[in-house]
Amino acid sequence: MGGCMQAAGCEAAEASQWGKALSCWDQALAGVGPSNAAAASELHELRAQVLMELGRDYDAITAASRAVQLSPSSTAAHLTLARAQLNMGEPSLSLSSYQRVLQLAPGHREAVDESSRAAQNMEA
């Protein structure tokens, strides 16, 4: 059921049905066992993206932080955390998260571009 709910959440998100996406992913998380940290991390990361779409940046940071905690080598989780931190007005924290993405995936295009924006925000 978890995979089915995850897919339904992705479809809802693609249709900009944010509330439905969150509901599906919450149901999927309830079905993910403690031994499947990677799946739980992915769901938290997806939730964080939607929470940012809803302007709920603090909640997005919480979800992305959980994703990073569950899967420290996930570039997607670190990238989403960096974006949420930047949205929340925390460019220095964001820059640290972008740097982690670049440690995991040197030359990651989005992280390179977005980290320069975070650095500019620190100078402003």
TrEMBL record:
Q: Which Gene3D superfamilies match?
A: Tetratricopeptide repeat domain
Task: Mark the transmembrane ranges.
Answer: none
InterPro entries associated with the record: TPR-containing, TPR-like_helical_dom_sf, TPR_rpt
Keyword set includes Acetylation? no
Q: Which PROSITE patterns match?
A: TPR
Where does the source fall among the domains of life?
Eukaryota
User: Keyword set for this entry?
Assistant: TPR repeat
Pfam families (UniProt xref): TPR_16
Where the TPR repeats fall, as residue ranges, is: 75-108
Its protein name is TPR_REGION domain-containing protein
Q: Which organism is it from?
A: Haematococcus lacustris (Green alga)
